[in-house]
């Protein structure tokens, strides 16, 4: 089968569940907006055409995507936190199958995957500021990629924890190679905007 048939089956079986939980939209992308939080659900086709992906994303409205766009237009791949809703624990894509009945079965399986894995994933990133403050508290800047350090430092700054933002950004800058000039510039700018230690 193909992506349009799969999307139609999802629109019949999964989208009503998502809408009852606050998601809005149609087509490939639905969003749920609550204060600074934007939850994004997206259906993506594969290049091969026989399977697709169910993508999940969480964005915070103070983290501008590039290029900047309104929060109700944020795309999944622009989100700060992303995940794929796997069809099985070891398979990230969704096979459309050979028939409309196969697509229907895949859509029913997507509802189960949402209930067991998708909803809980979003639940861990659904309360501002509590869920994000907990992530900042648990974050080890010495064990993370510098780009993730920049993200977490920005969140810490938004939370008003400028000391923690500096404690995250400084080691991130120290481990960023010279060739990553954009990331280095972003980290330097953030540090310059923080009050002195």
Q: Main beta sheet, described?
A: 6 strands, antiparallel
Beta-strand content bin: 15-25%
Taken from the alpha-carbon principal axes, the silhouette is elongated
Rg from Cα: 19 Å
CA(first)-CA(last) distance: 59 Å
Average pLDDT taken over every residue: 93
Treating each run of at least 4 consecutive H or I residues as one helix, how many helices? 7
Total number of strands? 6
What number of domains?
Answer: 2
Structural class of the helices, strands and pairings?
Answer: alpha+beta
Helical amount: 40-55%
Give, in order, the helices and strands: HHEEEEEEHHHHH
Unreliable stretches (pLDDT < 50, length at least 5) are: none
Kindly summarize this structure in a few lines.
The protein has helices spanning 3-13, 15-20, 100-123, 130-138, 146-158, 162-174, 181-193, and strands spanning 24-26, 29-34, 37-45, 51-60, 81-84, 94-95. It is an alpha+beta fold and 197 residues long.
What do you see in this structure?
This protein has 197 residues and is an alpha+beta fold. It has two domains: 3-123, no CATH class; 130-193. Helices cover 45% and strands 17% of the residues. The chain contains seven helices and six strands; from the N terminus they run ααββββββααααα. The chain has helices spanning 3-13, 15-20, 100-123, 130-138, 146-158, 162-174, 181-193; strands at residues 24-26, 29-34, 37-45, 51-60, 81-84, 94-95. Strands 1, 2, 3, 4, 5 and 6 form a six-stranded antiparallel sheet that branches. α1 (3-13) packs across α3 (100-123) and α6 (162-174) packs antiparallel against α7. The longest helix has 24 residues, at 100-123. It is elongated and about 60 Å long. The model has no long low-confidence stretch (mean pLDDT 93).
């Amino acid at each position: 089968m193909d992506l349009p048939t799969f999307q139609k089956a999802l629109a019949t079986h999964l989208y009503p569940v998502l809408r009852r939980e606050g998601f809005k939209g149609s087509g490939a992308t639905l969003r749920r907006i609550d204060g600074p939080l934007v939850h994004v659900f997206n259906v993506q086709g594969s290049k091969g055409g026989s399977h697709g992906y169910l993508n999940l994303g969480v964005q915070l409205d103070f983290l501008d995507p590039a290029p900047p766009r309104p929060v109700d237009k944020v795309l999944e791949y622009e989100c700060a936190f992303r995940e794929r809703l796997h069809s099985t624990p070891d398979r990230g894509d969704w096979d459309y199958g050979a028939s409309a009945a196969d697509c229907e079965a895949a859509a029913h399986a997507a509802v189960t995957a949402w209930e067991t894995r998708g909803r809980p994933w979003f639940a861990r990133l659904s309360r501002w500021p509590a869920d994000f403050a907990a992530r900042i508290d648990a974050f080890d800047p010495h064990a993370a990629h510098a780009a993730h350090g920049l993200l977490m430092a920005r969140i810490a700054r938004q939370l008003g924890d400028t000391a923690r933002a500096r404690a995250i950004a400084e080691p991130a800058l120290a481990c960023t190679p010279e060739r990553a000039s954009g990331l280095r510039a972003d980290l330097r700018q953030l540090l310059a905007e923080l009050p002195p230690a």
